[in-house]
Specification:
By secondary structure, the protein is α/β, with parallel strands linked by helices. Helices cover about 30% and strands about 25% of the residues. It has two domains: about 150 residues, Rossmann fold, CATH 3.40.50.1000; about 100 residues, Hypothetical Protein, Haloacid Dehalogenase-like Hydrolase, Chain: A, domain 2. This is Cof-type HAD-IIB family hydrolase.
Amino acid sequence: MMKLVKSKYRIIALDVDGTLLNDRYELTSGTVESVRMAHDAGARIVLCTGRGPANAIPVLEQMKLDGVLITHNGAVTVETPSRRLLHQISFQVAELESLTVYCRERQVHFDVCTAWEMYAEGIGEEAKAMYAKFMLTPHIVPDVLRHAEPLVKFTLFGSEEQMDRVEADIPALELPPSLTAIRSGVHFIDVMPAAASKGEALKELAALWGVDRSAVVAMGNYYNDVDMIRFAGLGIAMDNSPEDVKKAADAVVPSNNEEGVRFALQRYVLS
């Protein structure tokens, strides 16, 4: 057992999928122990994820922690255990009519999210298996374009080849300049407000808590993590990250399947 010391880091921002969880979507006991030790050493643990609150909060609860989570890639910040919505950046689904029609015509699976809920027009077998892994059950609706409540994210899902094609086609769809598309995983593209990002949300949270960026650690593994990795005083990439993500980091640690978060916390935070 490592001797507990007071950490110089006051915020530890952790991406969830591909970083905190292994590829079986599991939290290992060693990772949980290290995260809790960092918490006990005085650091606030902040999950920063593309997930929504509904399936991000259980990950925090599994570690027997509560606090603040940055979700939907920075579009929504919530507090637990109160489940209070602290911050939201949203848009109207009508702004993505061209993308919705594109997805329907090319049979690209998509869903839309409010801060707390998810909606889809249908679910095939591959999408059903994906949602099961992420502990999600979208509401099925006949036409998402009729949705009146503000949205925070529009997500496309498919094979790597299909997402590569979509990524190449998106510029021709002329999305409003207030929205941006980001590759949030091999099989995912998220379209959301350009003003929202994990890095901006983390920056605002650090300012709210009076924490200098030098006292912030951020760990991630994909392109939607790059801005928070660059913002943090110590930005860490998992070894399973693409090369451009690794280049943005101050350090690269073992992969999510090799308890990279545990390794990083023991080397940089708890030593």
